[in-house]
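Hello,

Following up on my earlier ticket. Below are the two sequence lines again, exactly as submitted.
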Amino acid sequence: MARPGLGDLIGAGPRAVSRYTGTLLAVFVAQSIVAATCMVAIAVVLAQAFSHLAMFDEAVDGDLVALIYCVHHGKASLLATGGIVFAAIMLWQLASWFLVGGLNGVLAQRPEGRGETARCFGASGATTYLTYARLALCSLPGWVVVLFAFGTGLSLVATRIEYALTVPELLGPLAIATAPALLLLHVLWTVSDYARIELTLRHDTHDPGVVATYLRTLVYVLRRPVTLIHGALGWLVFGLLTAAYAYLAQGHPMYGAEGAVTLFVARQGLSLLRMATRFGVLAGQIELGRTRPLPPRRIEAKVDPKA
Amino acid sequence: MVVAACGRDRGAPRPRPMPKIDGSPALRGGGAARSPRIANYKIEARLDPVKHQIAATETLTWTNTGESSVDTLPFHLYLNAFKNEQSLFMRSSHGVMRGAHASDTGWGYLQIESVRIAGVDLTSKLHPPANAGSDETVVELPLVQPVAPGATIEVGFKFTAQLPEVFARTGYKGEFHMVGQWFPKIGVRVGPPGAERWECQPLHINTEFFADFGTYDVALTVPNTDTVAATGVLTNAVDAGRGQRTLTYHAEDVHDFAWMTDPYMDVMSGQAKLPSAGTVEVRVYYRPEHREFARRHLDAATGAIEKFSAMFVPYPWPIMSVIDPPVDAAAGAGGMEYPTLVTTGGDSVFARPGVRFPEYTTVHEVGHNWFQGLLASNEAEEAWLDEGVNDWADARVMAELYGQRSSLIDWMGWQAELGAMGRAIAGDTGPSPIATAAYAFVDSTAYSEATYIATMRALQTLERTVGSQRFAAAMKTYSKAFAFRHPTGRDLFDTLSSELGQDLTWFFGPVFHQVGRLELSLRHAGCRAAHPPRGVFGEAGARKTVTEVEAPDSGTWTCEVVIQNTGTIHVPVEIELNFADGSSKQLRWDDRGTGNWERFVIERSSRLVEVWIDPENKIALDNPTTHHYRIDGDGAAALRAGAWFGAFAQALMQIVGP
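Thanks for your patience. The regenerated structure is below:
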């Protein structure tokens, strides 16, 4: 099989999005429900503390002084808000092992029809869930190294940042200091993505071990820079979409309950675009993942000797 | 690391052209002395920029203007605060001040080599005060012959000042030298005539300075590569050979002398135009990388001089020098005031145009040329008279210069007013009232909160209560009456009471002399439908039961509002009630002597929907978070905040998952 180039990987994205739009939307709706639940829970918590206080309206409308007063006044509520956000992210992290497994299964097996796609999604997600969870545990030491590199880099330029007078004086050292950590983060992130794909693609035929897959994928990713470039382009689009929204939203405050709903809807549009980007990247990674050398076959060891 | 951090190769310092003599007299417009000129100094000093050492001789001419004779002269040796960890300053600061740390290798001290009076060497007579302990920041000199009332004495010193690595307003950093509190300085006689005593406090983390007005003639011999800024005007500049030059400065009616040298600094200047005609030359000294900030400091200093001159008394000197210290010296040297010379700070990439912390620092330090430069209160005993009163004035000046709502921050749609921000971030003033000696506060936090923020809030409250214009006029009278003198808190209170035409003891007592707060809050608010009385009325045969049918709701509402003050400070307060039909009603509650709560009952054709305590935000002493209260909650803002947090959570979810 010819190894796909960067163009092929990028091209696989739109094709997958158009072919499995329903799957994408289903995952997005699940995410939106979690986000909306998070929003409502936070709104209830904040309303308990602030609905009678006009100062909170000013704080939300951008009055810095009012915001400081409200933070002082409602520390417990804001702590609870942080807890809700954290819980939502943790919940999604746990769910993501199933969802990514499902998406990988669908993109790998290319089922036809809504029912078949749903069956494939559910079966793949369920089958690989615990494997992905083990992979997450296996990845932990790498994240610790990233954190260490990040902390070390920042400590090396702390004085420069403290004494920076201009934006280039700030961003230059910051970029240099965080570049190793960010690069390592990107490498490990890409390794995790491709390891998941490998575990999905070869689950039934080779049943590869998690640790071995992780290490083999690390070597694979390092030998093929296209994996990193492709992933980086995905994050670039993700970042640009977010920045474009932030730019366009500037100077358009949306007041009142109606504004809150409008805000939520507009941000859902942004989120859908970002999710489509992630989905497209995943599709490209599947294309490349198919061409990887096969792992050692462990599946035979599981064959029942009586059979 | 620091050199690498700055990353600027400046090359070796190069000789600079001889500076031009300032043609102006030391007092703007010349004229007679404005102060009693009790302590006059002549100093010749030579800087060793490698050892960061100053070798100097000093002649002090001091006049006893009191009515009692003096047999001992006390002197401040402020630099000894940085001599070792046993000084009061180091013990009270633990070697940390405003984020700057005392250096383990750059100790500072002031060594008196000799002291002579009338040709007699009295060096051996110098001794620390009886209660000084290990602190060496004050020394006493017993006199052979007492100084009689009205008599003058001349004291000659030879001393060496070793500068510390910059910390707590003075010292060196590389080639930068900020030289403050560097020479033996006599204390101040205070107290009623005939019973005067010396005021000469050792240097503590919270205390600043207190000295008599006089004249200064200071000759500084420095490298010819250096830019020099100093108190007063430059009257002479000569080549001293060996790559050095001697610059002579003269200052009148000031109570301190500070100077700065740096081989890399440039100067930017502008003119402040005073309301009484005349101008002040404003000079900002900065290193090239600070140019953009220097412009901001120049605008702020120029504006501040104009506004302070209009609000109080005109700036009396012809020059104001603003030093913008190098970034690595800013924590130690920045944000300090001396007569006609201040150091500023706040330069940072995060202080974008519109984030006016650098401007505020400059305005605050320039403002100190009034509150304590001209109105030279005792900063050890009544620090609030310069810091807090200055902060109150700063808030006004910043609002006039940059707009009321955006006086501190106007950036990316976020706005904040200086006074309101100070009030919002105010912390606990601790167990001491505002009018506490600086060294007697439990810690530096309590000192700062009470001395700066609480004083500003107190004055703002009084100002808004009695009327801004009247209060400003009273403060102007105070400044005119006590310029070039040593006003006390009592002087300020008496002037304000007299000028505002009322006994303000009810305010000054609890606010400045007692521990406590003003804590207004809404205890209850609600309405019920009004109707004629229901129930059983009359006796025996005349007994009648009036029910809802006989006494239906009249269509009006009986609203009840209970306001309470659980604090110890009582100030008249206005209350605004807003009703569902859009109408409103103003109430006024003066709880002075009437109890700590008040119930208001109002009959109205419409329901009460909002209670707003202090709607015009006059009372700066209270926390206003709950002052504007809606009877029925409105969750729209909470929903908007929820939408924002929800979107934020979703963005993070999309990073960790699909």
